[in-house]
Amino acid sequence: MLAYTVLIAAVAVERIAELVVSQRNLAWSRERGGVEFGARHYPMMVVLHTALLAGCLWEAAHRPFIPLLGWSMLGVVIAAQVLRWWCITTLGHQWNTRVVIVPDAGRVTGGPYRFFSHPNYVAVVVEGIALPLVHTAWLTAVVFTVLNAALLRTRISVENKALAMLT
Fold first, then answer.
1. How far is it, in rounded angstroms, from Cα 140 to Cα 91?
2. Distance between CA atoms of 150 and 45, rounded to whole angstroms?
3. Does 54 score more than 90 pLDDT?
4. How far apart are CA 31 and CA 25, in angstroms?
5. Residue 135 and residue 60 in contact, taking contact as beta carbons nearer than 8 Å
6. Tell me, what's the pLDDT at 166?
7. Which terminus of the chain is less hemmed in, N or C, by CB atoms within 10 Å?
């Protein structure tokens, strides 16, 4: 359980690093006239992602570690982090945890965006399943996945409308 707690803490630190990058990019975008879309759903996203980490720890305290499941899911978590940071580095200053569009900015079509429109959300979905399952927290995985699907439906709709404004 200690190793899993360290993993969850590492993911929390990674999330804080994302927020630092996001805040810097938000300031950059606003300096260039960036406009935010869908701000109303953002607090729910923060709560849901925080609850994922808390749920992992709570449920794991009541579940056994199953090595085959745990180690394979850890590999999936690492792959999701690689994809997430590939997205962040590909978007550069345009990446944000919020939906912010800078007028006259071009739409990014390189990196993982060559293959599909929302690769960061693929990383989020995969991680939301795999991270809890590292320590058999299947209930957290199911609840997060269902709630995240509802949230992503809104988020992707907002983002697609905003992205349609880009040249």
1. 30
2. 11
3. yes
4. 10
5. yes
6. 81
7. C
